[in-house]
Amino acid sequence: MEKTLPALVSGTLYLVATPIGNLEDITLRAVRVLKECDVVAAEDTRHTGQLLHHFGISKPMLSYFQFNEAKRGEEILDRLARGEKVALVTDAGTPGISDPGERVVRAALARNLRVEAVPGPCALVAALTASGLPADEFHFAGFLPHKSGQRIHALERLAAVTGTLVFYESPFRVIKLLEELQSLWPRRPVVLMRELTKKFEERLRGTPAELLAHFKTRAVKGEFVALVGPEPKAAPAETPDSEALSGDARE
Ligand code: SAM
Question: Are residues 137 and 107 in the same domain?
């Protein structure tokens, strides 16, 4: 563990993870990088402005989101090349995980510019580790496509993947996902991690049919990570030997 805090390095792109619901989850290093950088590139400058304000930080910002990634990416690279320290943040969690970031990181590395992760909150990791499903092997699939045919195709392709599957899902499509899982893998355990790190955080576990029954009685609200565990091992079939033994025992 480093004990002293090195100064930020000129010409570095810092990928700063921010809270996914609980402001206490920001790291000390994230706050320092946001304080000491030259500019914050944010997915939504208003949203990030509130975060900065909460931590008493005032900093120039530029917007960097999915639909201006190419143009703004160039501007970020030019700033890095001039020696500026740029902090990239998204609305919540880790940049580049189902959020903008990957493109500018690749472009920066291609130009031999420095990129540094400032790790912290990530819904995927929080959900997986608290789900109770196997975390030694998992596959993160992010958001499924919206169109039904494409979703089923994507899920079918995941059938061969071993370990736990992890999806981000909008509350508007949670029921659809459960119905799809019910038709494809009715026996696999599903865990829905809802409103992680927030007041109404909740973990719902069951087969797809059980969770569908659960949502007949309440609305689907909040943010969700859906996890699908491996197919349960079949109960050991009784062998002729064991049948004979129990038969013996009854005599
Ligand atoms: N970059 C973020 C991260 O590191 O987790 C993810 C951004 S992605 C656009 C947003 C999705 O992440 C939500 O639709 C939901 O599936 C998941 N998510 C984010 N925050 C969450 C929370 N507090 N509880 C449950 N899921 C959450």
Answer: no
